[in-house]
Amino acid sequence: MGAALSGGGSIEEHLEVLPSVLQYRWSVISILSLGGRTMILVIGATGNIGTEVAHLLVKAGATVRALARDEAKAKAALGPKVQVVQGDLEQPASLAQAMKGVEKVFLVTPLHLDQVAMKSAAIQAAKQAGVRHLVMSTGIGAGPQAGVEIGRSHGRSQEEVIATGIPYTFLQPTFFMQNMMMFADAIRGQGAFYLPLGESRVSWVDARDIALVGAKALTEAGHENKAYPLTGGEALTCAEMARTLSDVLGKTVNHVDVPLAAARQGMLDAGMPAKLADMMNELYALGPAGHLAYVADTVKSVTGQAPRSFRQFAQEHAAAFKG
């Protein structure tokens, strides 16, 4: 969906998938090394976006701290160059220590019934700590008047950040390519993936490109008080994605369109709360109206690199899809 549209949304971190091997190539390392070893706190550092952000910031020369509920898991994912501190957005009192000495914050949260409150805890802790730049991942089209609840909830968080006066950058991504990894078993065993999108076009974005824009925003001047819609370079139908997977994997892969009611039941069966399943179905329902097809040039304009294509993503993750 486009930035000009009233609807907003993104499949967020609740669709956690098996982490991909975080490999990224730099033809030119364009992130500036940070004089004085700026301390940056990454909140949500064990998810698809946050892990990559932490690695990119280390590469850029920043001192990186990560907030995590599970220190051992975070240390294993992030490596020895990232300082891990225990904390929980659902326990706001735990955030003050994590914010000590921090100049900048990257914030991403999972889709959660309490995600507005969780973000609020981090936002207010950042304000109290005197943080001078907050980069937050929300969703494309996010705003208080968005046509879907996910977009409105992200919009409330954005409004709260603006009210603090902290310079901000909002990353507003569409659906993540990494969410296709939840179909890896089905693609291996059945040669199929299941999405209630019909013939809709969606401008899927690689989470690593979201992270790259976020790292740029944290390490370069000129990104303050901006909202960046983030998409891939093309809007694809599921049938086109299936053909790409078939070509890359050397076997037939089909997209199976499923009714929204069946998709909702599948989410409930997987343990998702009913309200979140309904929020997800709101997003899927935007497809037939063309609201998921918007293609932005933000990734290239901010990073100087074209966004990864779905074909690149499929090639890089072929082993997981082949088994």
From TrEMBL:
Entry-linked SUPFAM superfamilies: NAD(P)-binding Rossmann-fold domains
Pfam family, one: NmrA
Domain NmrA-like: 39-283
Entry-linked PANTHER family: PRESTALK A DIFFERENTIATION PROTEIN A, PTHR43162
Protein name: SDR family oxidoreductase
Organism: Caenimonas sedimenti
